[in-house]
Amino acid sequence: MKLTILGCYSATPRTFTNPTSQVLEVRNHIFLIDCGEGTQVQLRKYKVKFSRIKHIFISHLHGDHFFGLPGLISTFRLLGRESELHIYGPKGIKEAVTLFLKLGDSWTNYPLIFHELESRETELLFEDDAVSVQTIPLDHRVYTNGFLFKEKPAPRKLDVNAVAEHEIDRSQFNNIKNGANGKTANGVEVANQKLTLDPPNPRSYAFCSDTAYNETILPLIENVDVLYHESTFLEAESRLCQKTKHATAKQAAQIAQKANVGSLILGHYSTRYKSIDLFKEEALEVFPRVALADDGKSFDI
Predict the structure, then answer these.
(1) For residue 155, is pLDDT > 90?
(2) For residues 206-220, b (16+ Cβ closer than 10 Å) or e, as one string?
């Protein structure tokens, strides 16, 4: 898994910061998470291939999380896209996007498939042999979901040295990769465990923006490798959290600690602060493994 932050600041874009958008690369997928204004410019800047984006996940219908979507969809059309594009987002997103296309007489020439969400419970959005994606219901001023991305266990890997040592014929390799035992030229059976290597542990990533402090998400994100949690404010401005349904850096760290996550990435900073380092300093008082999102920054998960 590789996470690239295209934008991670709240409210409005500036010349040097961008609203929320991320790219998650996992097992031959490129998932786009949120699509704030300017996302397609950031995709070009960080050399993400447009044609590989087949699934876009929109957390909620505030502008700093989806105003870039109509433009990106239109650009796909201009580039001659033919493959399906799946959009997952709150009920109303289809109406909002198609109105743009209708008024501009710019319908897509590729299948545009909307998956509108309204459940207050977690639900599975996407699954194949490699990865699953489910919602994380959040607590914001409008209907909002985070997203949990989980790798499936990979097949065991062939141990080249072991099969050579046991003189296993190449014709058996595929079966061994799929879990079968091997046989030597003399017909002696060799256990699969002796001929293969353990695959890497499956990884997991939870995206939680925007939300107030919300312990109901803990069972869903427990033990994830990496948690991205919004930290719009510092504790000095915690009085604003109830009104805006946002969280502080300290609250994000408390969620990370209670969920026993591997590491915490902070983001969705209010632009009122002069330095985002203040967010990390505050979170580190509660949780020891904290990183700061910033536009263009990448993380290996």
Answers:
(1) no
(2) bbbbbbbbbeebeeb
